[in-house]
Amino acid sequence: MQNWIKFLTLFLGSLLFAQQTTFKFDFGTERTENGFIPITSTSKFDKKTGYGFMDISGLKSVDNGGNALTGDFITSDKPFYFSVIIPEGNYDITLNLGDSKGISEATVRVENRRLMLNDVKTKQGEVLEKKITVHVKDSIIRNQDGTQIGIVKLKPRERKYLHWDNLLTIEFNDKAPKVCSVIIQPNTKAKTIYLTGDSTVVDAQYEPWASWGQMLPYFFVPNEVVIANYAESGETLKAFEDRHRIDKIWKKIKPGDYLFIQFGHNDQKSGNSIKSGYRKRLKEWILKARELGVIPVLVTSMNRRVFDENNKIVNTLDDFPDAVREIAKEEKADLIDLNAMSKTLFEAMGPEAAKKAFVHYPANAYPNQPMALADDTHFNTYGAYELAQCIVKSIVDQNLPLKKYISKNYKNFDPNKPDDIKKFRWPESIFMETLKPDGN
């Protein structure tokens, strides 16, 4: 009987925790700020408690004394991941990073390597408060009253992704990440930018693959805007409908939000005719978005790394980019011409240097990789970062309403002058896989 009561108490406690949306975690030792949950180096994730570290090996609790909240911290010599069971939605996360008696250096990502903070350095004895805004999702499609009416048809490989696991996961990375506290609060007011697309947009979980979608949050002001990336590898406009991904968005999106639409790579190869399928669906999405008070933004697909004998990019996307441009004009919709900007960017790099933006690596560059990787469609983190800057540049140059939400992290990017790859920083995550994403 006692065991049953204990089980019931734990179950109900876990159930209540799962519905909770505000959390205050004090990282470090058992010396804890009032009203905060203590998180130590042994706080391994447990479904019963609803929070904890994915892996506690290598974690260190350091206590410098003084302030209970900022005087101690958790750190590690390798990337570490903190997860919380939390309902889907938008959340503001306040982080205290630093060392009251030393220096620190941290890069923060969430879910599937979604870039939020990059190379945050603190001076000797400094603790900085940083804020990020994160979209957490699940695969259930709900009515306004919360009743389940459907489900997104996930692919088998998606079931391992951190963004479908009913958790919020924060990745702490870099040379010396020192985390003093984490506060999580719901954000119901931020404009949400929903991203739809394929493997060139998706939040890629594994190194060395990456997309512009997972870099985009870094360039927007937190609290005001949040990026909700629903793209998936291998998808066409039709597949996005068939798997109910767009249905999930239609049920969640609200007036004033944005819907970014970038398809073409897979539609081109699916036998889906531009006239009968692609154009029709694209126009239907635009109409539906506007009926819901949502702003549709069309994005042309970026080029592949295919050059001619004069070192000029060859169009491998048939008439799909032109179709998007035409529809944008016909429907008076905002257009981000990533196809044109990527042509400028890759030609500025040149055929050989452009490999540095794509997944081109010699054999054994990554674990379990006996063969060289030579992919001229999918990007690494550097290439994805450059393309994300192209997206932001278009928003700024066209003076689109989103311009006022661009953060100071954006530095007037010029595709004619790509960033020096030697100066690009991306401390790698622990998740690595050389299996190519779906689609090409």
Quick take:
The protein has about 450 residues and is an alpha+beta fold. It has helices at about 1-20, 210-215, 235-240, 245-250, 275-290, 320-330, 340-350, 380-395; strands spanning about 25, 35-40, 50-55, 60-65, 70-75, 80-85, 90-100, 105-110, 115-120, 125-135, 140, 150, 165-175, 180-185, 190-195, 225-230, 260, 295-300, 335, 360, 375-380.
The gyration radius over C-alpha positions equals 22 Å
Residues in helices, as a percent range: 10-25%
User: Which of globular, elongated, flat, extended, rod-shaped describes the shape?
Assistant: globular
Q: Whole-Å distance between the termini? A: 58 Å
Q: What structural class do you assign from the helix and strand content?
A: alpha+beta
How much of the residues is beta strand, in percent?
A: 25-35%
Task: Sketch the topology as an H/E string, one letter per element.
Answer: HEEEEEEEEEEEEEEEHEHHEHEHEHEEH
User: Count of helical segments?
Assistant: 8
Instruction: Outline the low-pLDDT stretches.
Output: 1-18
Q: Main beta sheet: strand number and arrangement?
A: 7 strands, mixed
Number of strands: 21
Please state the average pLDDT score. 94
